[in-house]
């Protein structure tokens, strides 16, 4: 049937049900078991076993196999599938006829009946009552169990979750990862906090913000790009270990690894440095891998990933020098000329500096994809790291690392800058870049500087991209696979 005819047929059935006094959208249904609970409650039954136990299930009708005066059907809930046996004898002839004539694949049903096993040993419920809980007015895909069109899957997420068990399982694993993160940090003595999403100044990261307007106070506000500056103000206030898992918003492109709205974990610990942040990062990700995958040796897109410690640590400058073949310690103009001679592209907007952005560009284009097993890339240029402490012995660098797994950035961490005078100078340098046209440059945040002047203890801070970490741990090729509702073009 054409789709229009299928829609018309379902609406006609809806009218027939209502005319017969059936409420197609009742308020609720008391069920005794979910599919997984049913299997746990009745394990290892022999074929042709009648248990005498009556249960109540609810879920979506996903298949009907008609066999004359009896039929088998599949009922799907969040935990799995259960086979249902329906017959004129069990339901009564009118109720069985109503099932065949007015119910469709996709309808949500409540089933009450006796648990038994078929001659092949499959656990089944012999229906004594069928209750329509929601009439589905739109047909599922012809092969509902394999909705493959990627565009349809992402644009019609509910349909994707109905049709693809892998999509449901990915979201369940994501929830397990978030729960594990919280449990791990709570066990380490961290306090979970919440900081503003609407901020008067977008700070804590180098990114272009979204702007909105508050009508009552008549001022522009920004969706936060990071919670960092607020979390560090809590360190000033005496909270020594804090973390937040929440949404950040960056007005940037959409790709398989980028979504403008994303989830990040940020954690700050007083009296630590970036070495402590590396320890925390290893322990946290190890706990998540064990929880969701049961081990530290995973497979991502057909290639092995080893998360066992110790993780590799490598200097950013050494990696970039090796990847480009250039002496990256040279002044900016000489470095750009050498890159040109070697045919290594440098975008025009980076050629005037700061030099750190050229180094960062080389990391992204010449090194990053090679960093498969976990690698801490250490010690970034100061001019692109305005919130981090200078590296001991190398004042042109800072104590900052980025963690890469499967060729993608997973985490970013610092020994946090806590000198208010130097922080102001760093902000002013960023402001000059912004005035010169860099829309991602950071701004002077006077409220943060005021609190920093009260005294902030030395601290380790880390941000982890939750969505990307979930991608790695559940073997998802795109960030859209691990977001409930990704933004699409």
Protein traits:
single chain, 489 residues, alpha+beta, OB fold (Dihydrolipoamide Acetyltransferase, E2P), BirA Bifunctional Protein, domain 2, 2 domains, nine-stranded mixed sheet, five-stranded mixed β-barrel
Give a written overview of the molecule:
It is a single chain. The chain is an alpha+beta fold. It folds into 2 domains: 3-140, OB fold (Dihydrolipoamide Acetyltransferase, E2P); 165-311 and 373-482, Bira Bifunctional Protein, Domain 2 (BirA Bifunctional Protein, domain 2), CATH 3.30.930.10. The chain contains 15 helices and 19 strands. Strand 12 and strand 13 form a beta hairpin. The longest helix is centred in the middle third of the chain and has 23 residues, at 165-187.
Question: Can you give me a brief rundown of this structure?
Answer:
This protein is an alpha+beta fold.
Oligomer: single chain
Average per-residue pLDDT, rounded, comes to 95
Can you identify the CATH superfamily of the largest domain?
Bira Bifunctional Protein, Domain 2
Return the domain count.
Answer: 2
Using the coordinates shown, work out and report the CATH topology of the largest domain. BirA Bifunctional Protein, domain 2
Structural class: alpha+beta
Number of helices: 15
- The CATH C-level name of the largest domain is Alpha Beta
Give me the Rg, rounded: 29 Å
Under the CATH scheme, the architecture of the largest domain is 2-Layer Sandwich
How far apart the termini lie comes to 32 Å
Shape: elongated
Quantity of strands, as a count: 19
* Helical content (DSSP H or I, runs of 4+): 25-40%
* Strand content range: 25-35%
Largest sheet: 9 strands, mixed
Low-confidence stretches: none
């Amino acid at each position: 049937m054409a789709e229009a005819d299928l829609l018309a047929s379902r609406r006609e059935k809806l009218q027939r049900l209502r005319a017969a006094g059936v409420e197609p959208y009742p308020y609720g249904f008391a069920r005794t078991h979910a599919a997984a609970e049913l299997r746990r409650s009745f394990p290892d039954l022999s074929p042709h076993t009648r248990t005498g136990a009556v249960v109540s299930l609810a879920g979506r009708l996903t298949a009907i196999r008609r066999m004359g005066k009896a039929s088998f059907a599949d009922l799907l809930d969040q935990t799995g599938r259960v086979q249902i046996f329906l017959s004129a004898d069990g339901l009564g002839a009118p109720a069985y006829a109503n099932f065949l004539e007015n119910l469709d694949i996709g309808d949500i049903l409540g089933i009450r009946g006796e648990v038994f096993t078929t001659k092949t040993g499959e656990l089944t419920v012999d229906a004594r009552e069928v209750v329509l809980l929601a009439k589905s007015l739109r047909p599922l895909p012809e092969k509902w169990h394999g909705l493959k069109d990627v565009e349809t899957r992402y644009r019609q997420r509910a349909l994707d979750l109905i049709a693809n068990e892998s999509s449901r399982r990915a979201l369940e694993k994501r929830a397990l990862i978030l729960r594990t993160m919280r449990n791990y940090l709570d066990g380490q003595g961290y306090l979970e906090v919440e900081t503003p999403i609407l901020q008067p100044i977008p700070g804590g990261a180098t990114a272009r913000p979204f702007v909105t307007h508050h009508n009552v106070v008549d001022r522009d506000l920004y969706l936060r790009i990071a919670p960092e500056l607020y979390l560090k103000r809590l360190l000033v206030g005496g909270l020594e270990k804090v973390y937040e898992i929440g949404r950040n918003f960056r007005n940037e492109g959409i790709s398989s690894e980028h979504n403008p709205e994303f989830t990040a974990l940020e954690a700050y610990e007083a009296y630590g440095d970036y070495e402590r942040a590396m320890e925390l990062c290893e322990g946290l990700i190890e706990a998540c891998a064990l929880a969701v995958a049961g081990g530290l040796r995973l497979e991502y897109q057909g290639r092995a990933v080893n998360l066992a410690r110790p993780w590799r640590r490598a200097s950013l400058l050494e990696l970039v020098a090796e990847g480009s073949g250039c002496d990256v310690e040279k002044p900016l103009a000489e470095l750009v000329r050498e890159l040109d001679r070697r045919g290594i592209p440098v975008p025009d907007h980076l050629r005037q500096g700061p030099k750190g952005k050229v180094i960062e560009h080389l990391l992204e284009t010449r090194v990053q994809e090679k960093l498969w097993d976990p690698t801490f890339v250490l010690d970034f240029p100061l001019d692109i790291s305005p919130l981090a402490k200078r590296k001991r012995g190398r004042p042109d660098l800072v104590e900052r690392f980025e963690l890469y797994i499967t060729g993608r950035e997973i985490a970013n961490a610092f020994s946090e800058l806590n000198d208010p005078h130097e922080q102001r100078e760093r902000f002013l340098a960023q402001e000059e870049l912004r005035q010169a046209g860099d829309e991602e440059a950071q701004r002077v945040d006077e409220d943060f500087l005021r609190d920093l002047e009260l005294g902030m203890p030395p601290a380790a801070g880390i941000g982890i991209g939750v969505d990307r970490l979930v991608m790695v741990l559940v073997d998802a090729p795109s960030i859209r696979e691990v977001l409930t509702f990704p933004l699409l073009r």
